[in-house]
Specification:
With about 575 residues, the chain is of the alpha+beta class. The protein has 17 helices and 20 strands. It has helices at about 10-20, 30-50, 85-95, 100-105, 110-120, 190-200, 245-255, 340-345, 345-365, 370-395, 400-405, 425-430, 445-450, 455-460, 470-480, 500-525, 555-565, and strands at about 5, 65-70, 75-80, 135-140, 150-155, 160-165, 170-180, 205-215, 220-230, 265-270, 275-285, 300-305, 305-315, 325-330, 410, 420, 435-440, 465, 480, 485-490. Strand 12 (about 300-305) and strand 13 form a beta hairpin. The longest helix is centred in the last third of the chain and has 24 residues, at about 370-395. It starts with a strand and ends with a helix. The structure holds adenosine-5'-diphosphate and magnesium ion. Adenosine-5'-diphosphate (ADP) binds near residues 37, 40, 41 and 125. The site of magnesium ion (MG) has 4 residues, from helix 2.
């Protein structure tokens, strides 16, 4: 087929502009991105070859090769992975199909630093090549297609790209970067190797470069006809913990999570027994921009005996841990598992339970830190992901006690909107005669702390938790007790202050008698608007307040359901 020139999707043009300008200071990442794609391509080939081994053709040893040409001023990244057909090339390198793309673009602020951070989260990908190149040539052939169906794709990274069909014997993809003016420092074996070791050491297949040696006559390094592997070339999670540096764990996280920032913490272990698997789990430092998106990609990468099976295996994690990133490599699952099989597998259930326990232990460790730094880390974790974790109170009954210990609230005790009071802190401060944990729910912290329901508690010096997150009411509808103490809303009809009230009760009963005629009159006057009118002693400054009956929806929940159109 003749050469065709096509336009990039509008979003691609926008991303290209942005990326070249905002990420220039971190330009080395282009190599990480292209190597990561090559590695993905190898994973995909291995996966498809489970069903059809002829896809390996005569070239079963998967590898990535990086080379450069000083005279031509090019860098080349070559893989023998799955490759792309003509249609795949056009759609994968001309459009962004990722979920959350719209949302991503709507969040851009025009502020270079902020946008750079966002692009980092979005995943810069293939187009990052244009940070250092003013022209990129891609030559590729999909595994299984004939040599006559190779493809050449060329673009200067502006408005359009050209594609044509070529003859290509080799399966896989070769990417040639034609460097921009002034980028010649990248044309060095030493420089390329150090970038690869910095960002791509963990890649599971060998990254090859030609060896070089000093040529006395020419007075420069010359290439030898011999390969060397420049990375460790074994899947990071399969290596013993002691052999892995923090830096390597962090780089692996950045690759895995498409995040340009370091993770907050991680945990790595091998589980033996009925179900055998290795898990490497990370807590990110920041919530991704699409955490609240319905199609947010959640879950872990699943491998079976080192073979990549799928991204986002949401069956391996409960919803309320959807912020955790990582890898699970199972020794028991069949290689041909599908999402449907995962849903029913007993092995998967065992893994999910194990991963959940491990993730909670990791969070407990973070929460129990004694140092200021550790405390700040948990506070920052809570700000980013606390609302998600709280869903677990209503979702994971088996681990509810552990989750309850991790949860933090705002409270009348420290009078700030910051959620930093644990239920254990609250219980430790309870009055001797107090038997319940009191809370109030509202739309905002201001509204909660000014609630008339709180007056009697303030007067008696009893602490009340101030709950203002959307999930609180739902979580608390099934989470009703902590450490043997029932949780009680201060807005419930018959406020039972238990022993806190004893000495006043008698005096109140007397007042009650004298007020009876007035209450009867008010009942009559409000009979269409209020179910009941009662005398209360819970207010100190306000004349009256509305309450919900026990077992009835609270005002807050009613308003929320109304807002959601129910
Ligand atoms: P992502 O890797 O997050 O999907 P990229 O921008 O890095 O996004 O790549 C876009 C797509 O282009 C990939 O999903 C893949 O389908 C295709 N692609 C890129 N590089 C290669 C390659 N070396 N071999 C095969 N396909 C590739
Ligand atoms: Mg990529």
């Amino acid at each position: 087929m003749a050469q065709e020139t096509m336009s990039f999707q509008a979003e691609v043009k926008q991303l290209l502009q942005l990326m070249i300008h905002s990420l220039y200071s971190n330009k080395e990442i282009f190599l990480r991105e292209l190597i990561s794609n090559a590695s993905d391509a190898a994973d995909k080939l291995r996966f498809e070859a489970i069903a059809d081994s002829t896809l390996f053709e005569t070239d079963p040893n998967l590898r990535i090769r990086v080379s450069y040409d000083k005279a031509a001023r090019t860098i080349r990244i070559d893989d023998n992975g799955i490759g792309m057909s003509r249609e795949e090339t056009i759609s994968h390198l001309g459009t962004i199909a990722r979920s959350g793309t719209k949302e991503f673009f709507s969040k851009l602020s025009g502020d270079q630093q902020k946008d750079a951070a966002l692009i980092g989260q979005f995943g810069v990908g293939f187009y990052s090549g244009f940070i250092v190149a003013d022209k990129i040539t891609v030559e590729t052939r999909r595994a299984g297609l004939p040599a006559a169906e190779g493809v050449r794709w060329v673009s200067a990274g502006e408005g359009d790209f050209a594609v044509e069909t070529i003859e290509r014997a080799q399966r896989g993809t070769t990417i040639t970067l034609h460097l921009r003016e002034g980028e010649d420092e990248l044309l060095s074996s030493y420089r390329l190797k150090s970038i690869i070791q910095k960002y791509s050491d963990h890649v599971a297949l060998p990254i090859l470069m030609k060896k070089e040696e000093w040529d006395q006559e020419k007075g420069e390094m010359v290439e030898k006809d011999e390969d060397e592997t420049v990375n460790q070339a074994s899947a990071l999670w399969t290596r013993p913990k002691n052999d892995i540096t923090d830096e390597q764990y962090k780089q692996f996280y950045q690759h895995l999570a498409h995040d340009h920032q370091d993770p907050l913490t991680w945990t790595h272990n091998r589980v033996e027994g009925r179900s055998e698997y290795t898990q490497l789990l990370y807590v990110p430092a920041h919530a991704p921009f699409d955490l609240w998106n319905r199609d947010h990609r959640a879950g872990l990468k699943l491998y079976v005996k080192r073979v990549f099976i799928m991204d986002d295996a949401e069956q391996l994690l409960p919803m309320y841990l959807r912020f955790i990133k990582g890898v699970v490599d199972s020794s028991d699952l069949p290689l041909n598992v599908s999402r449907e099989i995962l849903q029913e597998s007993r092995d998967v259930k065992a893994i999910r339970e194990g991963v959940t326990k491990r993730a909670l232990s990791m969070l407990e460790e973070l929460a129990n830190a004694e140092t200021d730094e550790g405390k700040a880390q948990y506070a920052s974790f809570w700000t980013e992901f606390g609302q998600v974790l709280k869903e677990g109170l209503g979702e994971d009954f088996a681990n509810r006690d552990r989750i309850a210990k991790l949860v933090r609230f705002a409270s009348t005790h420290n009078d700030t909107s910051e959620q930093n009071v644990s239920l254990a802190d609250y219980v430790a401060r309870m009055k001797p005669e107090q038997s319940k944990i009191y809370y109030v729910t509202a739309d905002t912290w201001q509204a909660a702390k000014n609630s008339p329901h709180l007056e009697v508690f303030r007067k008696k010096g009893v602490e009340v938790l101030l709950l203002t997150d959307r999930v609180d009411e739902w979580a608390l509808s099934s989470f009703t007790e902590f450490d043997g103490k029932p949780l009680a809303s201060v807005a419930r009809g018959d406020l039972d202050l238990g022993a806190l009230n004893d000495e006043e009760k008698k005096a109140q009963e007397e007042v009650g008698e004298t007020m009876k005629p007035l209450i009867e009159k008010m009942k009559e006057a409000l009979k269409d608007k209020a179910k009941d009118v009662r005398l209360t002693f819970r207010l100190t400054d306000s004349p009256s307040c509305l309450v919900a009956d026990d077992g009835e929806m609270s005002g807050y929940l009613q308003r929320m359901l109304k807002a959601a159109g129910q």
